[in-house]
Amino acid sequence: MIRPELRHPLLWHVIGLTYLALIVWLSLTPSPPSGVHIWDKASHFIAYTGLAGWFGAVYRPARHVAVIAAAILAGVGLEVLQGWSGLRQFEYADMLANALGASAGVLLARSPLGEALIACERLVHG
To answer: How far is 41 from 13, CA to CA, in rounded Å?
Structure first.
């Protein structure tokens, strides 16, 4: 269930799904951008922390287990697709980094940081 305090849940979903689409593209493109030099596992952790944290802020805490599960399933599915593509490598360590990031994201959503979307709406609407 979506947090009832949010006035624009569709907007927050579109932003979150756009972020997910970016993760999908970065995961499946034959040659991801190389401008940022972050350790590979850290980039997986950061990406999934953001993803699960975003949706954790959109959904009530009762749905946070489902948010983690969905993020982990996305990460596993993308790793499998990478392996099947022959263009990228399948790595269990990436799946672990994704799962740890998803868990960290939901923990952040349960902190005061999880109120950020509500605070944004209050700034705009008063």
So the answer is: 26
pTM: 0.91
CA dist., res. 94 & res. 79, Å (int): 8
Calpha distance 101→78 (Å, rounded) = 15
5: tokens are: 């305090």
DSSP-assigned beta bridge partners for residue 2: 59
**Residue 119 neighbours by CB distance under 10 Å:** 11
Q: State whether residue 33 is helix, strand or coil.
A: coil
* Tokens coding 86: 């022959």
Spans in the chain with pLDDT lower than 70: 33-38, 126
* Residue appearing with tokens 């939901």: 106
- Residue 32: φ, ψ to 5°: -65, 160
Closest by CA to 89, choosing from 81, 97, 100, 98, is 81
- Domain boundary assignment for the chain: 42-125
Distance (Å, whole) CA 40 – CA 28 = 15
